[in-house]
Amino acid sequence: MSMLNETHDPALRSWVDSAQREGTDFPIQNLPFASFRRRGRGEGWRGGVAIGDAIVDLAALHRVHPFEGQAAEALAVAAEPQLNALMALGPAHWSALRLALSRALRTGSPLRALVEPCLLPQSEAEYGLPARIGDYTDFYTSIHHATNIGRLFRPDQPLLPNYKWVPIGYHGRSSSVGVSPQRFHRPCGQIKTPDAAAPVLAPSRRLDIELELGVFIGPGNALGEPIPVAEAESHVFGLVLLNDWSARDIQAWEYQPLGPFLAKNFATTVSPWVVTLEALAPYRVPFERPADDPPPLPYLDDAARRDRAAFDIQLTIGWQTAQMHAHGQPEHVVAQTNYRYAYWAVAQMVAHHTVNGCNLQPGDLLGTGTLSGPEPHQAAAFIELTAGGKQPLTLPSGEQRTFLEDGDTVVLRGWCQAPGWARIGFGECRGTVLPARAPAV
Amino acid sequence: MSMLNETHDPALRSWVDSAQREGTDFPIQNLPFASFRRRGRGEGWRGGVAIGDAIVDLAALHRVHPFEGQAAEALAVAAEPQLNALMALGPAHWSALRLALSRALRTGSPLRALVEPCLLPQSEAEYGLPARIGDYTDFYTSIHHATNIGRLFRPDQPLLPNYKWVPIGYHGRSSSVGVSPQRFHRPCGQIKTPDAAAPVLAPSRRLDIELELGVFIGPGNALGEPIPVAEAESHVFGLVLLNDWSARDIQAWEYQPLGPFLAKNFATTVSPWVVTLEALAPYRVPFERPADDPPPLPYLDDAARRDRAAFDIQLTIGWQTAQMHAHGQPEHVVAQTNYRYAYWAVAQMVAHHTVNGCNLQPGDLLGTGTLSGPEPHQAAAFIELTAGGKQPLTLPSGEQRTFLEDGDTVVLRGWCQAPGWARIGFGECRGTVLPARAPAV
């Protein structure tokens, strides 16, 4: 399902002019899915597909019944308020709908007259979560992040002995996952400074981000029935950007022995557009596992895909203070990284998660973990970029930052681009920190 | 809402004879809720209330419209397939429905002729999960368990410095929570023995249990709005028994640095009947926090309830091997403990979970963590009862056990009993281990 086909042809053009605009995230080769409605009209949520600056309203399209067979079946459920039922259908249906949409949106399509009335401008839209997220699991797939963070917490043993064997993951909180643009209050929590005798309840002073990708699960598995790694990608609908906001001071005091909890579960932001694995097919690249590292255990070794298990997705972190916003200055890119540096692949996350029989469900969300690369400017969390808060960043406004101040906005972006192929973008994942509320006592 | 009222009167009698049977878990003073249907009839799920050996079918009762006001409003949603909407209504509605049911089921009730046709025998029923569980969080509220386990993993520092300050918790997996009786396959996972150079994928050899209580959340809170500890219990619908099955060998290798993951998420079993906090009111007892321990931080200190924040709930773990089952031998009680030994109260779990703004939703599940008491026979996990697998238990069949063998069944039971009050029981929480499946490779 993730092989190249006519939908990837870089020569394709759409009758939607903005789909040809230089630098658009949403050319006709992308066609990502979201849940949306027009702002301020009391409308219901429904599925949409991005094309240039527009959205194809899939509920409206479904009403004119333009497709047949699996594409029509997929369109019927893609029109629903959230995409769980579409995700549950599986790759054959996803591909059929993608192909039908690609053909309908091409220059010269005989369906143009049917489809054009179903277009809405993205500027009028607001987005919902793409799916009802049953469970959210966060992985830890960047060996560079694991090493950088480990060095801060355990200088003598930055990388734990299990890292190169186990795709480390843990359960996150699904109720507080929100969609971009998300605004949330700075969390309060127990904080104990090293020299204090006791902790205090206070607003976090070390509020951080983690740049990740999110993975939306397609068809699930029954409890007790593992998903083999060779089949794992057929259980993946697509990817989004994900910001795993993290309160480092709360984390440092609470995380032993059972892992992060309140340091993470106050907010997690995802981008609205789910980019399908099929759209990413031209950007598959080999994993670069050092030759002297242990090979993955057989249940994690997808031999047929070793040369294309990773994705060349460029990722940036932008920082905009309230002052920059007031002066019309856009966010400033403070880090650039790439998903290809991850140590564990999407298929390995799925196979590992289910090897004990744990059941995944359509719409479940997996996070990749912080996607830091090997170079210092590729660190994907501020705690890494600022050496644990010791080396402030200077922004174009002249302001300095280690961790987030109230009013700061963080914008994550992601895209694939390479000569000979269409750019495939993720849009943006934006979040703003509001002041802490007075603790409830 | 959790004060004593006429529903707690130990002199109450029901026209359902079995509700007076010596030792019943479900006298008229209890009235716990479940989701049920009759087995093998293709019926839909609906809410039910236990009375003696019977179930009041709340969907059938709703159709005859016996109640008015808040009781009728609560009954209308209690008739639904799962109890989320009832949980969302809050304590005033729960109490009104409980009072109306108590009066309707009493000897001499004029409603008997209306209600009696709505009774079904429990022997014909099967149970569903009481609620759609959005998120499941597992706490660690027994200081005795934390110390016992800590001694096995960290002999030099059994209890971590944060324990007496932070109600430690972490996110669990909601998709694999099932209802008693649950049968599941022994999980496979990465296991690395201390003398091995590398891990292998194999069935767990150290499959364990954890006896806990589960807490079903009632009305939730909006993201960003903490629940004050003094209001926390009004967000709690009731309690169930919970078995947090745990693969200790998988856990030992995977759990650093982000906590348990595949060691826990293959299955979690809850008992079907949710016992309301109101039913437990006669069994409130003070917390016994040692005088030289630090007092809870203000956001965790419910001063008005300090003398009744704990519950005197007796708990047992029963073990039945396949051989015992074949010979008609019931499960053998290998440990007895009590919820009163917990270090953190239900209200403290809720207040802590939300102090950072994290949102709880109706039907969310909190686990108390393993409820070990101070004495060796009060250990609530086999790893504690058998000194890390070094001291086998001998069962009445002559068989020895450290961890679970295939075909073993574990039965958790819980009840409150004290002179002058009616017994309030939880029923049972039963689970059976099936053989591992061949790993998917």
TrEMBL record, chains A, B:
Q: Which UniProt keywords apply?
A: Calcium, Hydrolase, Magnesium, Metal-binding, Phenylalanine catabolism, Tyrosine catabolism
Q: Where is the active site?
A: H145
* InterPro entries linked: Fumarylacetoacetase, Fumarylacetoacetase-like_C, Fumarylacetoacetase_C_sf, Fumarylacetoacetase_N, Fumarylacetoacetase_N_sf
**GO MF annotations, alphabetized:** fumarylacetoacetase activity; metal ion binding
E.C. number: 3.7.1.2
Question: GO biological process: any one?
Answer: L-phenylalanine catabolic process
Query: Pathway, per Swiss-Prot/TrEMBL?
Result: Amino-acid degradation; L-phenylalanine degradation; acetoacetate and fumarate from L-phenylalanine: step 6/6
Residues recorded as binding Ca(2+), renumbered to this chain, are: D138, E210, E212, D244
Entry-linked PANTHER family: FUMARYLACETOACETASE
Name of the featured protein: fumarylacetoacetase
Q: Which organism is it from?
A: Tepidimonas charontis
